[in-house]
Automatic annotation (TrEMBL):
<feature type="domain" description="Creatinase N-terminal">
    <location>
        <begin position="21"/>
        <end position="186"/>
    </location>
</feature>
<dbReference type="InterPro" id="IPR000994">
    <property type="entry name" value="Pept_M24"/>
</dbReference>
<feature type="domain" description="Peptidase M24">
    <location>
        <begin position="194"/>
        <end position="394"/>
    </location>
</feature>
<protein>
    <submittedName>
        <fullName>Metallopeptidase M24 family protein</fullName>
    </submittedName>
</protein>
<dbReference type="InterPro" id="IPR050659">
    <property type="entry name" value="Peptidase_M24B"/>
</dbReference>
<dbReference type="InterPro" id="IPR029149">
    <property type="entry name" value="Creatin/AminoP/Spt16_N"/>
</dbReference>
<dbReference type="InterPro" id="IPR036005">
    <property type="entry name" value="Creatinase/aminopeptidase-like"/>
</dbReference>
<dbReference type="Pfam" id="PF00557">
    <property type="entry name" value="Peptidase_M24"/>
</dbReference>
<dbReference type="Pfam" id="PF01321">
    <property type="entry name" value="Creatinase_N"/>
</dbReference>
<dbReference type="InterPro" id="IPR000587">
    <property type="entry name" value="Creatinase_N"/>
</dbReference>
Length: 410
């Protein structure tokens, strides 16, 4: 399957992603009737499709009721209705605010399905003066006009957040960005499917890049190939850490100026989004025969990575995975090895709440998805990395990535 064949189809962008049962449980525990999303990630979680803003001040809210039988509500500016028509109507009731004017085409003029839907929605969707009035109408229709509400505080205008709190009984508006992230920790089957597709695209392009490595190849050529292939497949390239030789030890690389030479290692740490969901994979390649130093350090890194995976199962603390991985690397040939984490949850955010770190004592649960990585960076010498994505299963884990986990030699 080529990268282009992984392209997301518009009709695949819709469909519920939210873990309604888990969300209802969290809301019941917190005494809430609904969660209100304001960030692009949480809005996508509620309505099942990406709906991005053009600026930080634009207000879009998605209401996730505690009642799993109630449809979500989507509050958005009228000028965004055309985007809704293009992507298809999500599984949510629409509430518009602010004026926006378009004229209908004369009868008999050529049209398209999205234009027809846009015009139809304009004619039958109520428009309110502002976002809070539209939100109030949505809550009234859900029969929860007084809340209590958990509001994702990260993207609502602070003045509007304060005004919303004043309009409801005391304590009926609470910050909920953290609650959204808690709900999203355990992925639905639909989310795992999207993460699998995103990971598949990412590692297929990464494999192409491995085969491009040759004497004199510029880091920018490799990075440009990644950008081009991800975009052509319908994804969005993000972090493109492509470092050759001593630059392979730079954790984040955004400027490329080195050409690969025989004997040098190239470290990849590549991130993209496909249909809102992130992918993050890493590999190490040597041009020519690896040196003893390269083999020894890669073996230590791989040993720690394998040890981390041995502990990935429900009930194990994230901090325990970290401790075991670091100790294994230290015993395996890098006694001075230090690391802040050995992996992270991934989903609608690249770092999706839980981190396999010494200070994170939360337990892994079935359905969580993690990127497991134990990289090593030695400035002036080079870096090594294996990074793969796994979903936690009932008694262990399942890989979402399938590229060989070895020190590649070109």
């Amino acid at each position: 399957m080529s990268a282009e064949e992984v392209r997301v189809r518009p009709e695949a962008a819709l469909g519920g992603m939210a873990n309604r049962e888990r969300a209802a449980s969290v809301m019941a525990r917190e005494g809430l009737q609904a969660l209100v999303a304001t960030t692009p990630e949480n809005i996508a979680y509620v309505i099942g499709a990406p709906l991005r803003t053009t600026n930080w001040s634009m207000q879009i809210y998605a209401v996730l009721p505690k009642d799993a039988g109630a449809r979500p509500r989507l509050v958005l500016p009228t000028n965004r209705l055309g985007v809704i028509a293009q992507m298809g109507v999500p599984d949510a009731e629409l509430y518009l605010f602010s004026d926006f004017f378009v004229e209908g085409s004369p009868v008999g003029q050529p049209s398209t399905p999205d234009i027809d839907l846009f015009y139809d929605l304009l004619g039958r969707t109520a428009v309110y003066p502002g976002p809070l009035e539209a939100l109030a109408a949505a809550l009234k229709d859900l029969d929860i006009p007084q809340g209590p509400l958990g509001v994702d505080e990260m993207r609502i205008n602070p003045a509007l957040y304060a005004k919303l709190g004043e309009s409801l009984p005391a304590g009926h508006v609470r910050p909920a960005y953290g609650l959204f992230r808690e709900v999203r920790q355990v992925k639905t089957a639909a989310e795992v499917a999207r993460l699998r597709r995103s990971a598949e695209l990412n590692e297929r392009v990464e494999e192409e890049m491995i085969h491009l490595i040759a004497d004199g190849v510029h880091e920018e050529e490799l990075a440009a190939h990644y950008r081009d292939r991800i975009i052509r497949a319908g994804g969005t390239p993000a972090m493109i850490a492509v470092g050759a030789g001593p630059r392979s030890a730079l954790p984040l690389i955004e400027h490329y100026f080195h050409r690969v030479r025989p004997g040098e290692q190239v470290r990849f740490d590549l991130c993209c989004q496909l249909d809102s969901y992130w992918a993050d994979t890493g590999r190490t390649v040597v041009l020519g025969q690896p040196s003893e130093w390269q083999r020894r350090h890669f073996a230590a890194v791989r040993g720690g990575w394998e040890r981390a995976l041995e502990l990935v199962r429900p009930g194990v603390k994230a901090s325990a995975v970290f401790a075991a991985a670091v100790e294994t690397v230290q015993r395996g040939g890098i006694p001075h090895y230090r690391r802040q984490h050995v992996g992270h949850a991934i989903g609608l955010e690249l770092y999706d709440d839980i981190v396999l770190a010494p200070g994170d004592h939360r337990e892994l649960q079935e359905g969580m998805v993690f990127c497991v990585e134990v990289p090593y960076y030695e400035l002036g010498a080079g870096g090594f990395q294996i990074e793969d994505t796994v979903v936690v299963t009932k008694d262990g884990y399942e890989f979402l990535t399938h590229l060989d986990r070895k020190l590649f030699v070109q």
